[in-house]
């Protein structure tokens, strides 16, 4: 199955400046590598991904991108990548593309989808 990409997310990425543009583009690819059938949308002014419930999102700032998980506090974060102290959400802060730990992030994505299935 091929990913179904939301045109609003395409426009969002195109409007970003470097390095956020490259970070978000790589994260988007990573999400679809983890789950090609992930539902992509644009919620709360940011790219958001769902599979049997909300999974993750990308929030851009001037100098970094937060790759967040809606149920991040419940995830098994063996690599200690997640930041935040909210009751539910956690994020990974990325300043450059070389900070993207693809394998570890995919594990978090898979874990988040499994939580939605319970």
Structure description:
The chain has 118 residues and is an alpha+beta fold. 34% of the residues lie in helices and 23% in strands. Strands 1-2-3-4-5 form a five-stranded antiparallel β-sheet. Helix 2 crosses helix 3 (102-117). The two termini are 24 Å apart. 28% of the residues are buried. The mean pLDDT is 95.
- Note the gap between the termini: 24 Å
Helix content: 25-40%
**If you average the pLDDT, what whole number results?**
95
Sheet of most strands: 5 strands, antiparallel
Domain YdhG-like: 21-112
Protein name: DUF1801 domain-containing protein
Keyword list:
globular, single chain, 34% helix, 118 residues, 23% strand, 5 strands, alpha+beta
Q: Could you give a quick summary of the protein structure above?
A:
Residues 21-112 form the YdhG-like domain. The protein is an alpha+beta fold.
SSE arrangement:
Layout: H1 7-15, H2 20-34, E1 39-43, E2 46-50, E3 54-60, E4 65-69, E5 90-94, H3 102-117
Antiparallel strand pairs: 1-2, 2-3, 3-4, 4-5
Helix pairs in contact: 2-3
């Amino acid at each position: 199955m091929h990913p179904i990409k939301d045109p609003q997310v395409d426009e969002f990425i195109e409007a970003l400046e470097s390095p956020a543009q490259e970070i978000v583009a790589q994260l988007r690819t990573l999400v679809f590598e983890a789950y090609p059938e992930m539902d992509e949308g644009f919620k709360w002014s940011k790219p958001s991904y769902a599979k049997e419930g909300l999974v993750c999102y990308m929030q851009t700032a001037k100098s970094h991108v937060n790759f967040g998980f809606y149920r991040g506090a419940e995830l098994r974060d063996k690599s200690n990548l997640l930041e935040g102290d909210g009751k539910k959400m956690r994020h990974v802060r990325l300043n450059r593309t070389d900070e993207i730990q693809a394998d570890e992030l995919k594990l978090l994505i898979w874990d988040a989808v499994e939580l939605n299935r319970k």
